[in-house]
Amino acid sequence: MLNRMSMVRKEREVMTKQATDQLKLARTQGFHLEALRKFTLSDDQMRYTSLPMPAFETCMKDPERHPVVILSGERVVGFFVLHSGEGAKEYTSNKNAMLLRALSIDQKEQGKGYGKHAMFLVKDYVKSNFPEIDEVVLAVNVKNGVARSIYLEQGYVDLGKKKEGRSGPMSILHLFL
Q: Which pTM value belongs to this model?
């Protein structure tokens, strides 16, 4: 039985690696919207983030917000917003910082390592698309331990700053580029 469980775990690791090897970040385009409209999140996740479409619609009204899709091959599996200018001001004094907000992975795509790998890709994506930016900040609810550990694993640092959010206190994390 233990051997069978070990084999299943190994197969899952190989499938996850193959899926994340195909992962890329891209600016959200019109042809991504259908997939974003179909996104679902659990009630628990909705306490910490939002569905992509409301965040995307806000981006269309604010030129400092940049919508990003997380793609596995050509399939949309996740979404987030990079918010420059005023967006990062309440989180850092660095004028060359961006705020990462509204991160979500479609519920049916969760557990495959997409969020973790996407956070690994953020650094290069920002350097390539926003060369003047030297810091990415984000706020994570202190009760959202899974997300917090993923960010820290990918190089974000907690300098001890907190902020009150809609679902309670949040830690402000920094990724220095």
A: 0.85
CA distance 82 to 66: 5
pLDDT digits (tens, 9 = 90+) for 143-172: 888 889 999 999 999 999 998 888 889 999
- Phi first, then psi: give them for residue 149, nearest 5 degrees: -65, -35
Residue of 68, 72, 69, 74 lying closest to 21 (CA atoms): 72
Q: In what order do the strands lie in the sheet with 97-105?
A: 23-27, 65-72, 75-83, 97-105, 135-141, 168-176, 157-165
DSSP category for residue 150? H
What phi and psi values does residue 48 have, to the nearest 5 degrees?
A: -110, -20
Number of domains in the chain: 1
Structural domain span for residue 49: 2-176
Where do the H-state alpha helices sit in the chain? 2-21, 33-37, 43-46, 52-61, 86-89, 114-129, 145-153
CATH of the domain at 14: 3.40.630.30
Structure tokens at 64: 């400092």
